[in-house]
Design a protein that fits this description.
It comes from Bizionia echini. GO terms for molecular function: efflux transmembrane transporter activity. InterPro entries: Beta-barrel_RND_2, MdtA-like_BSH. This is Multidrug efflux pump subunit AcrA (Membrane-fusion protein). The protein is an alpha+beta fold and 377 residues long. It folds into four domains: 80 residues, Beta Barrel (conserved putative lor/sdh protein from methanococcus maripaludis s2 fold); 84 residues, Elongation Factor Tu (Ef-tu), domain 3 (Beta Barrel), CATH 2.40.30.170; 68 residues, OB fold (Dihydrolipoamide Acetyltransferase, E2P); 83 residues, no CATH class. Helices cover 25% and strands 36% of the residues. The strands form six sheets. The protein has a six-stranded antiparallel beta barrel. It has a four-stranded antiparallel β-sheet with strand order 4-11-9-6, with no helix packed on it. A hairpin with a 3-residue loop joins β19 and β20. α2 packs antiparallel against α5.
Length: 377
């Protein structure tokens, strides 16, 4: 029985092997399917060389051209004035910004001025007797002396005798002591150096002010500057007083400015050069972030294309007889999204949009309608 079963299995295995071999032979004899060649449709553009303006983008924040950090040079109590010392407060030129109580120091100044007056008055009898020709000018000086006004300048001494006499009485040293005290007394009142606005206030009325303490910041809101850092390769292209177009980061407002200053040295660490753009506009505020476009120069016989069309080895794809080819080009300027190229003959057909998997020799079909054009001037 066992031998019969093994014989039947052997016959079945032989028959199955026969059919499998026949099926493999039949499949091998079938012709391979023909794969149709796919011709990609590409967007192209015809080169027409022209003059391309080289525009250098830059950005930065605005800082007031005239700004003053207010520091106290004397000590005392901050007195209330006609205007509150608060951020946003406007002042006219010469208007009092800060007034510190100087009553005690004022008394010492008046005392020193009184001593000077008394010293000069004490020598008048001697001047009348010994220097009668000099008496009158010193008498006129005493007549013009007012304790409530700034001490007038001492009369000019015309001879050595007069100089020795006046100096020997200690009048010259007393005079300069008084002038020094008056200079310090003036520091108790801080006036606005120009029409402007207070942007920072670090103290309030009634507070004790200490010498060296920062009190705030004051700016002129009519003129601003924007500092920009550019590559050293653009150093020769920057020109003072050249107009610059600026815009806010939302690209909703545009402003006109000009290059006011260019730094004479290059930053050794970053290899950049610093320039300053001056701009005037009532809508601008300190700290605003703006973008600038500097017209550096114009490049003749060039075209401008998207950067993603330029290959790594400074080559681009061109189309010849519906076949892609590669041409070497000369990039002369790169922006964030575009590149300016030279050495491309007029009439050359180039790709206008990148093609995935493109290679030299690839069959293509140019699209008849051109959705975008090469940026020409």
């Amino acid at each position: 029985m066992r031998n019969i079963i093994l014989s039947i299995l052997g016959v079945i295995l032989i028959i199955g092997s026969f059919f499998i071999a026949k099926n493999l032979i039949d499949n091998k004899s079938k012709p391979k399917p023909v794969v149709d060649k796919v011709v990609k449709t590409v967007y192209t553009d015809t080169v027409s060389n022209t003059t391309i303006p080289i525009i250098i983008p830059a950005n930065g924040s605005l800082v007031a051209k005239q700004r003053v950090e207010l520091y106290a040079e004397v000590q005392g109590v901050f007195k209330s004035g006609n205007k509150l010392f608060k951020p946003g407060q406007h002042y006219k030129k010469g208007e009092t910004l800060i007034q510190i109580d100087a009553s005690e120091y004022y008394a010492s100044v008046q005392s020193a001025k009184s001593n000077l007056y008394n010293t000069i008055a004490a020598i008048m009898p001697d001047l009348r007797l010994d220097f009668p020709n000099m008496f009158q000018k010193w008498q006129n000086y005493l007549n013009s002396f007012d304790l409530n006004k700034t001490t007038p300048t001492l009369p000019k001494m015309t001879s050595d005798k007069e100089n020795y006499f006046i100096t020997g009485r200690g009048i010259v040293s007393s005079y300069y002591t008084v002038k020094n005290l008056e200079q310090r007394l003036a520091k108790y009142n801080m006036s606005a150096p120009f029409d402007g606005i207070l942007t920072e206030a670090l103290t309030t009325e009634g507070a004790l002010i200490r010498s060296g303490q920062k009190l705030g910041e004051y700016i002129d809101p009519s003129v601003y500057e924007m500092e920009i850092a550019l590559s050293k390769s653009y150093a020769s292209l920057l020109k003072v007083n050249e107009e610059v177009e600026l815009q806010n980061i939302e690209h909703t407002e545009k402003y006109k400015g000009k290059i006011s200053r260019v730094n004479g040295s290059i930053d050794a660490a970053t290899q950049t050069i610093t320039a300053f753009i001056e701009v005037k506009n009532e809508q601008l505020k300190e700290g605003m972030y703006l973008e600038a476009n500097l017209n550096a120069k114009e490049e003749p016989n060039a075209i401008e294309i998207n950067r993603n069309l330029l290959l790594d080895d400074n080559k681009i794809f061109i189309v010849k007889d519906n076949v892609l080819d590669i041409m070497a080009v000369k990039p002369v300027f790169f922006s964030e999204t575009t590149v300016v190229l030279k050495n491309i003959p007029n009439g050359t057909i180039i790709l206008n949009k990148p093609v995935i998997g493109a290679y030299s020799g690839m069959l293509v079909k140019p699209f008849t309608e051109n959705p975008t054009t090469t940026k020409d001037n």
